[in-house]
## 1
Amino acid sequence: MLNANVKHSFIKVVGEENFEDSKAGRLVYSYDATPNFQSMPDAVVSPRNKQEVAKIVKICNENSIPIVPRGSGTNLCAGTCPTEGGIVLLFKHMNKVIEIDEENLTVTVQPGVITLDMINQVEAKGLFYPPDPSSMKISTIGGNINENSGGLRGLKYGVTRDYVMALEVVLANGDIIRTGGKLAKDVAGYDFTRLFVGSEGTLGIITEATLKLIPMPETKKTMLALYQDIEAAAKSVSKIIANKIIPTTLEFLDQPTLVVVEAHAQIGLPTDVKAVLLIEQDGPPEVVERDMLKMEEICKKEQAISVKVAASDEEAEALRTARRSALSALARLKPTTILEDATVPRSEIAKMVNGINEIAKKYDLNICTFGHAGDGNLHPTCPTDARDHDEMERVEKAFEEIFVKAIELGGTITGEHGVGVMKAPYLELKLGKEGIAAMQAVKNALDPNNIMNPGKVFAKDSRKRVVITK
Amino acid sequence: MLNANVKHSFIKVVGEENFEDSKAGRLVYSYDATPNFQSMPDAVVSPRNKQEVAKIVKICNENSIPIVPRGSGTNLCAGTCPTEGGIVLLFKHMNKVIEIDEENLTVTVQPGVITLDMINQVEAKGLFYPPDPSSMKISTIGGNINENSGGLRGLKYGVTRDYVMALEVVLANGDIIRTGGKLAKDVAGYDFTRLFVGSEGTLGIITEATLKLIPMPETKKTMLALYQDIEAAAKSVSKIIANKIIPTTLEFLDQPTLVVVEAHAQIGLPTDVKAVLLIEQDGPPEVVERDMLKMEEICKKEQAISVKVAASDEEAEALRTARRSALSALARLKPTTILEDATVPRSEIAKMVNGINEIAKKYDLNICTFGHAGDGNLHPTCPTDARDHDEMERVEKAFEEIFVKAIELGGTITGEHGVGVMKAPYLELKLGKEGIAAMQAVKNALDPNNIMNPGKVFAKDSRKRVVITK
């Protein structure tokens, strides 16, 4: 609990109406989209501008109060779960698009703006912000930046990191710094812009961001390739890239995922095949046309049993929507859904999918796999029940083996979901003790009192998801 | 001078043949491409592998000996000038292309490989590494990474940072860490890959890098637009982008630069116009054709007095070569050439060029300006004479005003050359005291004994280029 003086200081900064410490009010922010993590904050504070953020941070730094910055809490790594108590810093008021600069192709936003709201505003001007996390209808740009969100278009267009040009950040000592600019080139000092992107709120609080936009592609086409063999699908992915085509989207869904998605979406997806690839290309019409033909040829040569281009925009949109609904469809199966995002080099996808299936069999689990095949970013997903402690133990062991397998294949434990609390115990697999020590040194340098989202990224202990935080 | 024990330790690691401390041997590495900076190292040590690098670093860390990593020393910020003595760590042996991975579109290299050698090898496989610093014939990839080198294709394709996927780095404590991977998506911990890119050797020693490649564009076209008015040229640049065309290259040369380049290259460049734009587009033939026509139209509408597409590859190559030779052509004019790279948002180019010209007039200097107009990265260049102390004082003041002007316009003090020693006194203009303090905290955390290229990035004092280091 906050002491009365501290509470009074917060209220002096943001006003009574933006300070909340009732039990009901705190309960709402005691969890995020991550299953099985819950922990109460001491208060929820909603600043209205960067000056207020700086004042709040100073109070927290002087009193060693943890700060958990939060947009919509859609992350899947318990990154916004207040595991150490302290305050949730809620960006509900700082949710404006500040400027769309059509000459420099940038958009400047406050962190609390909803991703899709921003996208709609820039698209109205013929501009394109490529990162498209599946949660974009409710996620915020601040959250996307803190997690370095990916999405379906990562293969061709990259991830959030590749579109952040400048940041305004409040540091743990209350200093407000600006990084980068509307500049295609800037080497004045270290690349702090990208150090903060994906730092999960552990290094500072982002209060403003300038994002890069690109011209809107002229057209887009969508196709679905069906396979009776997972390896054939994976090989098609590699062959497409080796043929020097970089499609916008190259999504993979295995049969168990397909069955569930079709039951949910009911758009006529085939459920009697072992795997499908959802392939999209965008760009000038001539190029899209040519690439689609070439990819169709490649998929057929690699044993696709059917390749079909969506006949209309509506059909294409239905396919995309179905793919985006994979997680929510899977979440309907069982009370608890454990979704991971182990990622491997593109060339290793078949090995990884086979590896996941073997591990699932070994631990007697139902693991469905879908994901961004083009960038090797897979989402093995296990519908389970947190109350079934025996199964949860097996889930835990299975996912640990999945992480180890990904690392063995040159991959990583998380492609786009972040480390948070959930994957902190596994971080050493990827970085080694030395790598973690170096990152911790940077964390300590910028946040010596460990007030910035403590308990995230770096494991305090080896607690895994089996134990539920009270 | 190194003491005998330390010298013996280095020789034990690399062998007599890779240790050099004769006066002549040290003299060669007492300067780089930066005018007016010279300082003797105590020795030159050439490791053959990462284990040797780690051993050398440990010796240096225990004995507080500065390490200056060096490829070809083509940087323009005195980034490889051993201003604090210590050893030059020369990467002449670690110069191999380790692997070209055609399935994952990556190339893995040692830091000492010559940029163009690597480019030739990947192009032989139909793959493309876009960053093209003007020094690429002799620069090394290690140097490019440490400086985050840019080049002529930055507008469309980005800079070195955008192509580094993974690094192997020896830290100051001798730990060897690996960052990233052959992974389009990876959010396991902080983005150390990009923290090291552009850190100018001040955070660690890069011993291996995996770079992203893309498919080779099918075709390329080049054109030259002539203007009697600098603002018309600048406006054409903005209009091209606002029309949603992102050309590969959008280079600007003012009249004084043109005159010098033509005298040097003799390829029939017009010298009676106020400015030219060298514009290139690459990609599928249909798209290149269409974009070139549209850009021709835009330039004419914006008062270009002539727009001419290069008739042949040879003519295009001659134009590119002429542009690339701008610095060497200007360097022939006077004993000393001061070249800067103040950078502004694209929309501010006309204001910046006019500002430079006013400042040149005020200080009675001849400043020629050329550069990458598409990304706002200008190279105001002053042919002068370091022995003329009066003129050098004026040069110093003029460039300080140029930096201030760039910052005023939302720009930066260096777009692609780096801070090094040269621009360290001006870094505060861009970052503020708070920003520098935060970066220094990170530096101290990773290199507490300050052995990693000390004296670079952060100013020890306000010494500027007027005073020559002995």
## 2
Amino acid sequence: MPTPQERLAQLRGNEDAPASVASKYNKRFRVGVIGSGNWGTAVAKIVAENCLEKPYLFHRDVKMWVREEEVSDMKLTDIINSYHENVKYLPEVTLPFNLFAEPDIRKVADGADLLVINLPHQFLGSVCDQMKGIDFSKSSAISCLKGINVSADGVELLHDVVEKKLGLHCGVLSGANIASEVARERWSETTIAFPLPSWYQQGDADDNLIKELFYRPYFHVQVSDDVCGASISGALKNVVALGAGLVEGAGWGDNAKAAVMRRGLLEVIMFGNVFFPGKCRPETFTTESAGVADLITSCAGGRNVKVGRAFARTGKPLEVIEKELLNGQSAQGIITGREVMELLTATKKEDEFPLLGAIYDIVHNKLHISNLPERIAD
Amino acid sequence: MPTPQERLAQLRGNEDAPASVASKYNKRFRVGVIGSGNWGTAVAKIVAENCLEKPYLFHRDVKMWVREEEVSDMKLTDIINSYHENVKYLPEVTLPFNLFAEPDIRKVADGADLLVINLPHQFLGSVCDQMKGIDFSKSSAISCLKGINVSADGVELLHDVVEKKLGLHCGVLSGANIASEVARERWSETTIAFPLPSWYQQGDADDNLIKELFYRPYFHVQVSDDVCGASISGALKNVVALGAGLVEGAGWGDNAKAAVMRRGLLEVIMFGNVFFPGKCRPETFTTESAGVADLITSCAGGRNVKVGRAFARTGKPLEVIEKELLNGQSAQGIITGREVMELLTATKKEDEFPLLGAIYDIVHNKLHISNLPERIAD
């Protein structure tokens, strides 16, 4: 028996009906979304809106993988599909009818031409495992993941993890995008770095494809080629935002917060230079939405600021604060801060990143915040 | 008859008593401050603190020129000298006893080795006129001025105006420095660009002198050589902050504000490239306190944000808002925005600076703010 949403979609017409406008590409793209948290759902809404508006480019229906959970006495997928709202992670925002919550990840991934991957960093490994064996040789992905992977082998960016684990060509979307604002269609910019895969042939796609999928009147897209820079910036700004929250919690004022953000920007640029030499452009950090603008908006009032602020005020362990404040969501700056410190320690480069080190020491090693200015003094 | 403050200073000892530590320079420097507004008084406090602490480098007493005015039934200079507080422009902050308010500008300027100039842009011309004829051939100045001068001859930076009008070698201090926070000794950073004057000889001074004068435990100084970049950034960030205020007033959220700040940073960099080619370094804008950090703190909550916010909410003329909100202080973004637009129009470069143009059109030409995103879209 079809679900109410499937029935509604049927009633609204055949999603694969021939489009009245010819596509400029060889085929229509089927889009899937992996992940349905706050940001995951907001981005799913964007792509579903565009798939609905541009039947000549995209298949109408978009499946979004939802890690099944119960909310009150209903499954979250059933709630989303019946009420068009992700009441748990993006409440009070109506989702397009052509966005389908799907608990079986393989049903989303298999057959998708373009996969939007948008998960908390810590779930990436297991989620990739669940998609193992799917043939992605003619698919592409856009990673909205924020983080880095550090191991004995060194540091990996998360879009590289996707490429390696799944053989799935992967770009990056990152920008000044507080999810709740984007979801409410308040004007934002973003950066998408998506070099076309080498196996694309004439007519398969061009640089404009990705803009067609993500651009909305309220969501402006800058296309970049710096996958590495966008990825690093998106990961590390969360650690800087944790630091900005510490400064706020200590009651130090806007000058101090700006000083931490400035130093943070410098260390993000340096992180790129030191660990990915020649692979990212400094301008990405200083002039793109994925760079300085994301840093600014994340430090203005994202989850990491909230956690840092509460830590400075209460001294409670970060994980406790995260649970108390974030309703099941995670503050990625905590986990990324740990990975960064592991990397800096292993490579003996702590001294080159005094702000990142000081933030770590404040939240994990009982360093008093009053030491911060001297630690990061030029 | 000595004033109470002069008497106090006498009682505290001879300000020119030999210092117990030898100076590394050929002589002690006498420091004067021109300007006593909010920021003027805050910086005067800093230099007076250092002059008091370092008698081997500086003469103890610092004169600050105050444009005389009555507050209740007292002269402002008398209030400052009797109560050590600038009740009009920096209330509730105690000033060092060795900082003297002086209504006669020539008594401050004449004989000063280092002059800190800190005025609203619009008073610079007449203030320079009042100092005409003074021999500044062996003096130097630090400009804390924010603005540009546009005329039929083109655009001038304000420290250049000082140099030309007075024959006074002039550097620039600019940074993420909301005055009230600095005055309350909340940690801040700043950038000082002060190339030594060509006539300095061995032992006259070195690059450290300026740090000795301005560095405080709560006020960290980065020394730079980019006078031009620091000056441009300090001027134009006020216009961007006006734009950030508009976005706030329209209720658009942090992503939108970050987008405006990002675009603003780009246009500030471009302004340097276009109008002062080869004279400033892009890194000043993106990595110094005078650059991105000042932009951030100014857009967080300075005077220009307040004015922009109120304009978006009420539509009242800027000058009316300025009077209502700022207690006699000025929002420099208004006047600088006008100068910038005059320059862009005269040089037919409006199209290259869409954000600066849009901000001007919104506040002066009834452009609705809803047009802003399209106007600045890449």
## 3
Amino acid sequence: MKFIHTADWHLGKLVHGIYMTEDQREVLNQFVQLVEEEKPDAVVIAGDLYDRSVPPTDAVELLDEVLFKINVELKTPVVAIAGNHDSAERLHFGSSWYRNSHFYLTGKIQNEFKPVQINGVNFYLVPYAEPGNVRHALNREGVNSHQEAMKAIIGKIEENLNPNEPNVFVGHAFVLGGNTTDSERTLSVGGSGCVTQDLFAPFSYTALGHLHSPDAIKHDKIFYSGSLLKYSFSEAKQRKSVSIVEMKENGTFDIRYRSLAPKQDMRELSGYLEELLDTSFYEKEKVDDYLKITLHDEGALLDPIEKLRQVYPNVLHLERKLVLKDMKDKKSFTSVREEKKSELELFEQFYTEMTTAEFTEDKKEVMTEVIEKVLQEEGDRR
Amino acid sequence: MKFIHTADWHLGKLVHGIYMTEDQREVLNQFVQLVEEEKPDAVVIAGDLYDRSVPPTDAVELLDEVLFKINVELKTPVVAIAGNHDSAERLHFGSSWYRNSHFYLTGKIQNEFKPVQINGVNFYLVPYAEPGNVRHALNREGVNSHQEAMKAIIGKIEENLNPNEPNVFVGHAFVLGGNTTDSERTLSVGGSGCVTQDLFAPFSYTALGHLHSPDAIKHDKIFYSGSLLKYSFSEAKQRKSVSIVEMKENGTFDIRYRSLAPKQDMRELSGYLEELLDTSFYEKEKVDDYLKITLHDEGALLDPIEKLRQVYPNVLHLERKLVLKDMKDKKSFTSVREEKKSELELFEQFYTEMTTAEFTEDKKEVMTEVIEKVLQEEGDRR
């Protein structure tokens, strides 16, 4: 029995102000083709189909279109759950009808975990749910963390699980041992969102969504498929693929990966402005990729982003990082907002970064005067 | 062949700050029971299933539940279209799957109007669409009004329509001859949203949604079913029902109405405060109905809404209207915002309504001084 494990499509995602819907359409077309070639017995989507609870309408249309091709036209059973980015209730709408076409979609956590059986394999669908919702749905006091919630759910599943059959857990969770990237960050703050690996011991294969790298966890039975695309620059070096799992009757399996190639990659580039704008440099580059550029230049630069965009139209983020011999690296732009600094400190930082000259006491005096005058006038106006 | 015609459910509707979802659930339960009794060959819902493009999640769950009962449990084919309050794209999601269960849902206008055939009757599904969307979908220049759009659509339908069969048009539009109420108002401003009755001549029965009264149009083949519930006080005196249509092979039909009874009616009440608060008056009243109360009292009243709510918990709107012998009626509250008045005029109106004493020249002088001082200070601060 063969299934494809994918997750974290995040349809309707906005990356640095750019809607990724067309990139997603491109990659999903490749995915549909891959399904056509592989002819799996099922496609498993482990949550975060959309990027937000109310996705833009073109993302809604894209999902409808892609699932229709896979499920109805290619007659492939589809197993899908809601992730933390999906709206459980909105995604759940219509799921009772979809089952007739072997499209098994679970948006909301329920008090029943009857497996979906496809060619001898049992799929247990566990959508993302807050501990409070699990406590309510399972009517179990004392469920206050994701760990307790998952334990309660799996305990409930085990009541009727036949360990002699291949059992696949489909979930959306932060399983410990994983590494996070920027685009997954929201959930994991403080570690309260984590669950431990040992909970999944009853399953032959655990098909997870949530972390965006297929290498996020090293385990012989627990896997993240990784996201469809790179969704932040912290994922720039991750491979993106879907997992092809061939499940045997005894619950062991073979796994291999097939990658999907977006038209535009997301990657980082660094160097001196002049160098990056040099034909001999960029003629070897895929200039329309989504780029984060780090400039090493010292001193003031006049509108570097404009100049860069004439060569690299999709620069999404620009940073400057001086490369000095005996000093620690200094960051600009991004760090400014992170700390609470006085106006004078902010200006001093700006001045030294832009000029590399010293911000002398004389200069400091002049600026102090200017700043005080401005603040005074602002106060008067209030 | 028997079908039930309903429309304008407006699930998730907020009336004067109150979510009507529980009232809707109550009435829809009655509707499901009515379907069970009538055993129709189809249920037709002519648009505005939801009240807005992104309805609250409990409205989404309610629609899912009700349609599942009717379509899957009672095995009744359902024919539904999007209205102007629905999101065409969001409602359309999944419609390809629903067809397998004889749930025919059209959210988006398309360039094809293949009828849904149910027991010898052809249903033509025409969701609400802006003229621009119709122009685009049908690729027809010169479609700039709703009238032109509807003409183009029906022209297209007629290309393949067999006039010897019973043909039912299912649409969501403001057909001339109808009367509007407050809750339909948005679309009809300026009359540009109107279409004429003659366009529907090719059809045996035209099942409309949009206007909320079943009496909104007097025509022997064009009908509004009316909304599920009263959704504004301008509908307080309307009957609310669904239409049971028995269609014969030659395209003639019988029609009858069945009403649905919400737990709480929406109605208007008027009188003097003391009278309305008198036990002998309200003991005969259904005090927990949704009420618009008009008080006839003169002079100042201390917190009348609080006093009224102790007897009538669901007062949604309070107005005052003096009943004077030789004067025209005067309105307060609501009328204030309608006209552009000076500060002095506004105060004068307020003063006379609250006290019924004269706003003398002396008083006027004092107020003029106060108002000028306030405006002056406000100007200085800007």
## 4
Amino acid sequence: MENSDQLKQTYQATTYKLSNNGPRNIAVLQEAISGICGDELSDIYGTGEIITHFEEKIAHVLGLEGAVFFPSGTMAQQIALRIWADRKQIPKVAYHPLAHLEIHEADGLKQIHHIETLLLGESDRVVTLADIKALSQKVSCVLLELPQREIGGQLPSFQELVEISMYCREHQIALHLDGARLFEILPFYQKEAKEVCALFDSVYVSFYKGLGGIAGAILAGPNDFLEEAKIWKRRYGGDLISLYPYILSADYYYEKRKDSMALYYEKAVELAKQFNQLPGVRTIPEIPVSNMFHVEFLKPVLEVKARLAQVHQETDIGVTGYLVEKDTNTSSFELTVGDAIFKIQAKELLHLFQVLS
Amino acid sequence: MENSDQLKQTYQATTYKLSNNGPRNIAVLQEAISGICGDELSDIYGTGEIITHFEEKIAHVLGLEGAVFFPSGTMAQQIALRIWADRKQIPKVAYHPLAHLEIHEADGLKQIHHIETLLLGESDRVVTLADIKALSQKVSCVLLELPQREIGGQLPSFQELVEISMYCREHQIALHLDGARLFEILPFYQKEAKEVCALFDSVYVSFYKGLGGIAGAILAGPNDFLEEAKIWKRRYGGDLISLYPYILSADYYYEKRKDSMALYYEKAVELAKQFNQLPGVRTIPEIPVSNMFHVEFLKPVLEVKARLAQVHQETDIGVTGYLVEKDTNTSSFELTVGDAIFKIQAKELLHLFQVLS
């Protein structure tokens, strides 16, 4: 058995996990819909109470004029950028080098919309106002991802966000928020969602990250923007006859977990501190600003994998099922605090860190 | 209250319906997943047993090398045509003037892929081999929709299909099947799905038409074609982390209704006969070749609407909730036989036609 398989298999075999909200299994859907009256009618191609009520509710939460439910954020964000590019007649947008659009979408933005992407700043830090000012070409839209997932969920200061927003408005650059994890950053900023969203022209939020739904996204913004977005949703084949399995679960888990984000954040800070006390281990960021961070091991990856597999078997707590090798002496994984960690007793968690040290 | 609203409202208020498989409500999903073990794991971005087992099962049913599950047929078919256009280096495809791609997708094929569409034959009849031979320009792909939904679900003869297939192969034209209602036509052709699919290079089937699932589609064909399709599925934002709500219901309702298609077809033939005996009424086609047909009224539309609303209230059987006005003296609706009609007692159905006459 390879070490990578062993790590994954021992992880899957553990009863408890450090990350996430529990297994992604069918029970997640069963729980979400069991309390709903079977007579309630499906949404039909974007119409009907199930979809419009949820869209109105989230638009209100985000403080934006309207909202449209999409099957995925990939679809929603490409469409948002296309609309801004069309409106400003500039087929160029700018975002972080590790933006979801750049590394996880098989170049959909370029292949479907022929939009050129300018990368802002450096891949190992968040985008700054200086990066935007330094753009060599005019762009229609800047996309900011809060938190910046691929670097452990880092954030700019709220003041920097305000300044970026002012600069973009002055320069007629649309500012779009990749808020896949928007609810997860509110405790750090000590803001409501609408205070963050007020800085942006359009906003995407996801319902299966910290909230733990099944899939699905909301794109929010001005109504005329959303009317265009609905046409593109139809073109993409995202205007399904029924999106209710995702909508109902998004609503259910939003209600279930929206008030737990501060708890997740505090636990992430506490957990990162414990990891940083281990020899040859550090977290990125050192002090988390959301419910997530990266754990980095400064040892050969095979050694770490073998050790973690032992730890899984010894503690019955899953630390991670994979490791990304950064160089011969550095590997890391992403840790995201959700409901799962709260099922582990304090002394068991303490024991885990004793075993890890 | 307007007549159109009155028709819709009286239709919705009826206990029984002539069309479909029952209300599109949450109970459809609840029924599909209630028997499944909650521990069963979600598919993850196109991987996992739930999705691969279903894809393999349907590929086997269709007799094709492989299959990929998509959230929608719109997405699946645009992608299929794009791949054929790329392979043959001809950004032109041909299909019926009332193809789904032409009239229901907000020009997605043209807007996303810049593919030119050549319309085959006439809008009020099915595509013939002669239409394909008469094409003035070379195309990469011909798409055939079986049955042709917008003209009441008409079909060419199986012999004509065989000849079209041979011609396309001879001329290096890919032949794609819009088989949204493929299972519904097998009783008329007296063929298995794989015998029809063997004539095509790629096939799309839907799981929420006659089968009555929630949403979702399969694109089937050669494995190298499907590998490209998966990349496009990712680009479109159709590669959701979890598609299982649609997959599980597709599988459940496929098993539940696949063997009822002959029953639906026979009932459609019987029902069309009864409509054709009414004064000023005819069906298209006169004798159905699937579970669907159009009912045409040769009277002013407002008169028909008012009459049908009365009929709804008098019989408690829903005939239709809408009428499409074709000209001042002609209107029609689509009738699709599913499980719903079998809940109506024979004498009640007889009574309906007495009231209608």
